[in-house]
Amino acid sequence: MQYNPYLRFIPTLIFMLLLNWSSAQKTSVQNIDTNIEALMKKMTLDEKIGQLLQVPGDISTGTDVQSDDLLKQVKTGMIGSILSHTNFDNKIKIQRAAMESRLKIPIIFGFDVIHGYKTIFPIPLAQAATWDIDLIERIERIAATEAGADGQNWTFAPMVDISRDPRWGRVMEGAGEDPFLGSQIAAARVRGIQGNDLADKTTLAACVKHFAGYGFTEGGRDYNTVDMSEQRLRNIVLPPFKAAADAGAATFMNAFNTLNGVPASMDKHLVTDILRDEWAWNGLVVSDWNSFGETIIHGAADNEMDAAAKCLNAGSDMDMTATTFRNGLKKALENKRVTQEKIDEAVRRVLRLKFQLGLFDDPFRQLDPTYREATLEKPEYRDLARKAAAESMVLLKNEGGLLPLTPEGPFRRIAIIGPYANSKGHKDYMSFWTLGLGMREYDSTKVVTPADVLKPFLEKQGFEVTVTEICLDATCSERDYSAARTASQQADLVIVCVGEQGFQCGESRSVASLELNNDQENIARYLYPRKPVVLVMFNSRPMVFPKAYEKASAVLLAWQPGFETGNALNDVLSGKVNPSGKLPMTFPRNEGQIPIYYNHLNTGRPQQDQGQMWTSGYLDSPVSPAFPFGYGMSYTNFSYSEITLNKSKIRPGETLEVSVTVTNTGEVAGSEVVQLYIQDLSADIARPVKELKGFEKISLEKGAQKRVTFKITDKDLAYWNNELQYKADPGFFKVYVGGDSRYVKSNSFELQAQ
Ligand code: GLC
Question: Which residues make Cβ contacts (< 8 Å) with residue 527, sequence separation at least 6?
């Protein structure tokens, strides 16, 4: 072979190319502002407005988006982002079209990755019931990895709306009623979604939603009015948003609702005064679905030009569904309702996000079919889904230690009965977010149902097992009840699987009644008498089921557990996993108690016993909930020592150490969420009877004990008062520690003035 003198230069050439590529990689990420300004100088007004438009993808359009019209718009730079698009090949086509545009500005793909992407995890409210912050972060890491591999760059999560109203269908998406737990979870989700580098293909831009107050809609009706004091907004609603912003969340999303009369999308006080100025956060704010346009329907904007001007001037940047900005923003500029600077500010935020995501360096970095194939639905993802689902389940009753079911027990014949014993075609055990989005080609074989696992597992242990699916149609019929009675007559023990359908959970799924629909609760009544019943509830929100609860010897909340439903349920019922879930939301006795939550004010006339006249209560119901915030049982028992404090007084800046010793006094190992609450007894204004200020999930072998110490400073005692000062009032406090918000040990301390 003839020697080629230039061969020796190839290694150098490769090195130079790599150096150039990596420096280009570094340059575009490190010199983002320079690159943005260079681009802004070239952009026309139409191209700038185009970056502020987000259009629906194939989930919403119902078609695989090959439409020439969309590709043409992309080629002319008239679109900045596409949401809810599932077809992978189409995403490549769309991005190629963007690369044919004059300035080659890449498209950013947004998607609702709410509790997993291709591997479906328990719903977020169930994940909150684990109180396991590290686990929640790991779940988001996997969800982002799968979504990133499938070409998504941006997820519309975490939803951090605090809510005290289980009638609201979207409580399933959040972390429940408490701002402290909600803040820990919000930050964990942002860390999991965004990882350490937005330009990594396993990460997505997070989008903190819905800013703000959406969980406090009147009547629990979705999209309804929200009215609250600035003090409640800042003490209850905003902390998880602030925690997410502090965790580095790249984007925020407006809420649909009005807050004190102002539609959130055009609420300058929320988006600019608080988010951008007070919190010094300058990321991209995207509307919710046509929420810019809905300002007109709210009656707070005259037309699309007025709506576009008000939303942009409030500090909101991108129009999800695009129409209001497409039709109104240029007119607003022409009519001097907005300035070019204001438009440019919003455009810069969009471009900055695209640079941060590395999309300018490699628009196809998350559109690699080989990487996608190798990354989606790995077995270890399902392992975590199984662990999370089991850890989220909450044991509410276990008379006589009926659970766990073991071969040594007194039962031989087990009947598994109910609409959720083996539901395949009904798309259950998850939420509408995974059914409608990301699960378009719904494959029911991916869900492991209770019967799939329990029947073979129990039979292998020597039990006889029957599965009787009933109440699958609109309601439970006499035929259903008689089938249940027959099956239970021939069994020693009955496992009843009831709850909500997957499509009953989530947005636009508010209910006036929290009772089990279709008369499912009657199943327990029609069972053959004197058969011990294990009630398993597949719920997406606090439910009201007093009759079934009374009839059952054991009650397990399974929530909507996702793909690994059957395995997780079996792990708990068999005792392989000792349940450790704790309620992230209060469970009311009845809808009349709503709103009901643990961190309420004492009032001047707190009611101790029902019927006590001239006190704050009802004639026809106790004021106490069915199950309190933070409640959940275990197969073992935990005892708490009295609380010891390292001092009885602290000054600002000093640390109070609150300690208890927790002992596992039962027969099996278990985990316990040790919860710390405070009560401000003498503030300038009335303060809640309890506020969660710390928790630690501990695992203890049988007979073992652990000393748990929490540290408190005056910063943990601060709150927003009506003068909008954030401060702690000197005075007396109580401190509580326990395994829920009701059964607690207590002690007292004083916060002294400076
Ligand atoms: C919906 C929801 C929002 C979601 C968006 C895109 O209406 O309110 O949470 O991210 O539209 O699907």
Answer: 417, 484, 485, 488, 494, 496, 533, 551
